[in-house]
Design a protein that fits this description.
The protein is of the alpha/beta class. 51% of the residues lie in helices and 17% in strands. It has a single domain, classed as HUPs (Rossmann fold, 3-Layer(aba) Sandwich). The chain is built from 7 helices and 5 strands.
Length: 173
């Protein structure tokens, strides 16, 4: 490779890196971190990783939880849903909002940085990340394979559609 070509590649790489990090404040560090939680027992490792990064970079933390409609989740069953399902969804929503309040209090996160949404998880996580100018999304993944991988996991969908960095924390089990 010629010296001139090598210099151009080096300059282009530096420019691209500068462009990629210019959108981040805080000297290229993560200023806003979004924790995507589903309120299962395995959230602790995801939350701890996000907290560690926030402490390291002096970042503001945000939380997002997306509740997928039971009708949407089980649409393939072609079952007509009645009042019982809507009542169950309302109950789950209340429990999740309470869990978010408790997590926010534990982490010292203001209510304005707590985001509860309904819909497709990846779509809603992307929306919140865009609306809040998030630099990093931290979420858990179970490292699915086989048919689950072909159908796509939420972590994979978030990773491939996000306009910011995504840290997928492997959850054992």
């Amino acid at each position: 490779m010629s010296e001139k070509m090598s210099e151009n590649l080096s300059e282009n790489s530096s420019e691209n890196l500068s462009e990629r990090t210019a959108s981040r404040s805080n000297n290229g560090n993560y200023s806003k971190i979004l924790i995507a939680v589903d309120f299962h027992e395995d959230n602790a490792v995801v939350v701890q990783r996000a907290q560690n990064l926030a402490d390291l970079y002096g970042s503001a933390l945000h939380i997002v939880h997306v509740q997928e409609s039971l009708g949407m989740a089980y649409a393939a069953d072609s079952v007509a849903w009645g009042d019982q399902v809507y009542s169950l969804e309302a109950s789950i929503r209340r429990e999740n909002l309470q869990a978010m309040r408790e997590l926010a209090e534990e982490l010292g996160i203001l209510e304005a940085a707590c985001h509860a949404a309904e819909g497709r998880p990846a779509t809603e996580i992307h929306r919140v990340a865009e609306d809040e100018d998030i630099d990093l999304i931290v979420m858990g993944t179970h490292g699915q394979s086989g048919l689950q991988l072909l159908l796509g996991s939420t972590a994979s969908a978030v990773l491939h559609g996000a306009n910011c960095d995504v840290l997928a924390v492997r959850i054992k089990g």
